[in-house]
Amino acid sequence: MQLEDYLAVPFILDARAARRSDGTWVCRLAYEELPECVAEARSPLAALDELEQKRIMYITERFRQGLKIPVPRPPLRWRP
After folding, report:
1. Is the separation of the CB atoms in 27 and 15 below 8 Å?
2. Where are the domains of the chain?
3. 33 CB contacts (<8 Å, ≥6 apart)?
4. So what's the pLDDT on residue 35?
5. Angle, vertex CA 30, rays to CA 77 and CA 53, nearest 5
6. Sheet with 25-31: strands ordered across
7. Count of alpha carbons within 13 Å of 2, Cβ hemisphere only?
8. Most CB contacts within 10 A, which of 4, 69, 75, 76?
9. What does pTM read for this prediction?
10. What pLDDT was estimated at residue 72?
């Protein structure tokens, strides 16, 4: 796979409200498969912008180093 292929992978986004130690609430976004990709901000859009920058940097750096890049597991299949 090429770098562009990894950057196009649709990772599963985890979104939560989180309370900081100072008592303020923020939007916390993360990709479970990419452990270093976590962002917090008061605005969901600001958190998403930060998270996307981290995702691109994380994947690009691992690709350049020849390290394995995690990808999401395939969806579960429903069986009647």
Report:
1. yes
2. 3-65
3. 11, 12, 70, 71, 72
4. 87
5. 120
6. 13-19, 25-31, 38-41
7. 2
8. 69
9. 0.83
10. 82
